[in-house]
């Protein structure tokens, strides 16, 4: 994951990425951090993502799956 | 009015536990999310609390109040039966709420039998509708009665000699 931008995450494009950056989530690992603090819970993470950058259901799901898989593999 | 934003992280955590909301640590980045969830839970809790209080107070002032709030409350209860009664003449309904004995009214107000019943029961979502339970009970008792009748006829009649 390294220093990749938040837009490297699945479901996060330019628009959502910009919104996340404005809220301080400028790197993928910061969103990962938030994912972990929410205990990797799907419902909580989806709700948080929706509230923070306005992600729709598909985008929420993609981002969650992406982070979930990364954690399953590397954490 | 509780000011959630003025509460400490620890207090927010405790409130989340009280409402049974699953959560992670309450930190700066998760605070806003949990405050929102608490606000939703509080308003929902307040709404169901007020509604259940209303079932015990049948004062005239509450009549119109109940009518307005019913659509919100009975969302989980089968909408099928409820929409049937939306078209009903509202002048009939206040009669049910004014009297003190709702169960007596059940026989009198035949046009709206389920209403006092729905009001009496606590506002919990039912997995199995009440009418179905009663029906099953009647079927089972009917079957038992049939079995009993058959057993009676199988025994030879005893005489007191």
From TrEMBL, chain A:
InterPro entries with a match to the protein in the record: BAF (IPR051387), BAF_prot (IPR004122), BAF_sf (IPR036617)
GO BP field: chromosome organization
Organism: Sinocyclocheilus rhinocerous
Pfam families noted in UniProt: SAM_BAF (PF02961)
Name by which UniProt lists this protein: Barrier-to-autointegration factor-like protein
Lineage: Eukaryota, Metazoa, Chordata, Craniata, Vertebrata
GO molecular-function term, one example from the UniProt record: DNA binding
Claim: Nucleus is one of the keywords in the record: yes
Protein localization: Nucleus
SMART domains: BAF
Record's GO cellular component terms: condensed chromosome; nucleus
UniProt entry keywords in alphabetical sequence: Nucleus
From TrEMBL, chain B:
Domain LEM: 1-45
Annotated SMART domains: LEM
Keyword terms of this UniProt record: Membrane, Transmembrane, Transmembrane helix
Pfam families registered for this protein in UniProt: LEM
TM annotation in the entry: 130-151
Database matches in InterPro entries: LEM/LEM-like_dom_sf, LEM_dom, LEM_domain
Keyword check for Metal-binding: no
PANTHER family per UniProt: EMERIN (EMERY-DREIFUSS MUSCULAR DYSTROPHY), LAMINA-ASSOCIATED POLYPEPTIDE THYMOPOIETIN
Descriptive protein name: Emerin-like
Gene behind this protein: LOC107743857
């Amino acid at each position: 994951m390294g220093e990749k931008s938040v837009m490297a995450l699945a479901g996060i494009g330019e628009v959502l990425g910009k919104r996340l950056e404005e809220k301080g989530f400028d790197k993928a690992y910061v969103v990962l951090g938030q994912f972990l603090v929410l205990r990797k819970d799907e419902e909580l993470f989806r709700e948080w993502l929706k509230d923070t950058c306005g992600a729709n259901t598909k985008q929420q799901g993609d981002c969650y799956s992406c982070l979930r898989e990364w954690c399953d593999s590397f954490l | 009015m509780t000011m959630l934003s003025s509460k400490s992280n620890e207090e927010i955590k405790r409130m989340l536990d009280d409402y049974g909301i699953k959560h992670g640590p309450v930190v700066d980045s998760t605070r806003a999310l949990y405050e929102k969830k608490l606000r939703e839970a509080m308003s929902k809790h307040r709404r169901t609390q007020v509604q259940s209080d209303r079932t015990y107070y049948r004062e005239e002032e509450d009549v119109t109040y109940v009518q307005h709030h019913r659509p919100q409350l009975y969302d989980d209860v089968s909408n099928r039966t409820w929409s049937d009664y939306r078209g009903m003449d509202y002048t009939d309904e206040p009669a049910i709420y004014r009297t003190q004995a709702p169960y007596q009214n059940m026989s009198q107000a035949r046009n709206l039998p389920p209403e006092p019943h729905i009001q009496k029961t606590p506002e919990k979502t039912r997995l199995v509708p009440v009418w179905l339970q009663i029906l099953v009970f009647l079927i089972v008792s009917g079957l038992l009665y049939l079995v009993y009748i058959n057993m009676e006829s199988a025994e030879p009649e005893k005489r007191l000699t």
